Structure formats: C-alpha cells, structure tokens
Amino acid sequence: GESVGLHLPTLSVQEGDNSIINCAYSNSASDYFIWYKQESGKGPQFIIDIRSNMDKRQGQRVTVLLNKTVKHLSLQIAATQPGDSAVYFCAEQTDNRKLIWGLGTSLAVNP
Amino acid sequence: GAVVSQHPSRVICKSGTSVKIECRSLDFQATTMFWYRQFPKQSLMLMATSNEGSKATYEQGVEKDKFLINHASLTLSTLTVTSAHPEDSSFYICSAWSSGAMWQSSGNTIYFGEGSWLTVV
Hints:
The structure holds 2 protein chains of 2 kinds. By secondary structure, chain A is mainly beta. Helices cover 0% and strands 51% of the residues of chain A. Chain A contains no helices and 10 strands. In chain A, β3 (32-38) and β4 (45-51) form a beta hairpin. Chain B is mostly beta strands. Chain B has strands at residues 4-7, 10-13, 19-25, 32-38, 45-51, 57-58, 67-73, 76-81, 90-97, 110-112, 116-120. The radius of gyration of chain B is 14 Å and the shape is globular. Chain B starts with a strand and ends with a strand. The model of chain B is unreliable at 101-107 (pLDDT under 50). At the A-B interface, β3 and β4 of A face β5 and β9 of B.
C-alpha cells in the first residue's frame, strides 16, 4: 500500500559492520523479489533479486534471504561502507509486471 | 548495460502551466514503461502503466486528465503534468521493461531512469 505520511525507518551501523535490512511483503502469490538502493535525488538502482523457488541468493557483499512462510525478505550487506548509505527498498513483482514497493529503510553508515 | 534516460532532470514551472517529462530507453525497446512519483522520505508510488501504442492504465486515485501519458514509440514515453499546482511538486521516476528479456527470468530486466524533479511555483 502507499506510505503517505510515514517516515522512513533508519538503520545506523558502523563502517565495517554487517547490515541487515528487513522487509515484509504482501502478496503470497508473488514469485519475484528485488532489492533496490536509492541515493538522494536519484532513481532506484538494482542490487539483487530472488525468485520464490529460492531461499537465499548471494551477490557481491550482499545476500538476500526469502522466507515465504512469513512473507519476509531481508538484505544483508557485508562489511558496510560509507558508500552504502542510501535508502533501500524491497519490491515484489506481480504477474502484470507491476512492482509493489516496500516502505524503504534508510541506512546510515558511521565512519 | 541498458539505460533509461529521463529529461529534464529538474524543472520549475509556474502554477497553471503544463510540463512534459520524457522517458527514453536508449539501447533497448520497451513495450511497457511505468511512471512513479515519490515524495521526500517516502516510497515510490505507481501512477500509471504506459503501453506502446495503447492507452495508459492509471492507478486508482491518479487523474488521467491531469497526468497525460503518451507512449508513441518503443523507446519513448512522456508524462505531461497539466495545469500544474504546487502540490504536484514531486520527484517523478520512470522505469522500462526490456522487451527482449523474459520478464520471469532472474536478473535485472527492469531499468529505472534517474528521475525528474518538478517544482511548481
């Protein structure tokens, strides 16, 4: 649903620590999920995706976990760097190609 | 890689005027494009789905006469905000599907533009 009027939750981590960003999705029929990174004033940037027939997928420094039982998605960032500071959104794709967006989490990396 | 270009990146217009934002897929054909608006510190809100050669499909609550969408070619969709008001000030983002890729395949087949900041004064 829309996030009108809500403030983004913020996750603050120390540089070098691991970050875990969580997301709950709404449609149990969704079969494709994507994590995006959005820096201030820019469009969303693809990070990693996962299909519903998988529980885990790894990329470079990032891992996505999918728990279909509780409709939960998480993004793990290893050795978080200052350049990782941004807002992170999860998105679930419907069968008509639309993306349903999560509320977003603002990640702040402290040097 | 595939690139989606939005223009202008920033625009200021007077209240009551119309402003057009372009979304171009630079090295692929996009039969479907999506238009979003985003307010500060909020998520993206889908406004409409733009299909090449046909009328756009608007989300509930989005005025089709105010936000005119034209997808005249496989590489260009335009969003025109008509009779703009200060409350239309927002960040507008488009995304495009690469028609050459299976949408169900894993991988990044959805490409986003860099967004357009609209300020109505």
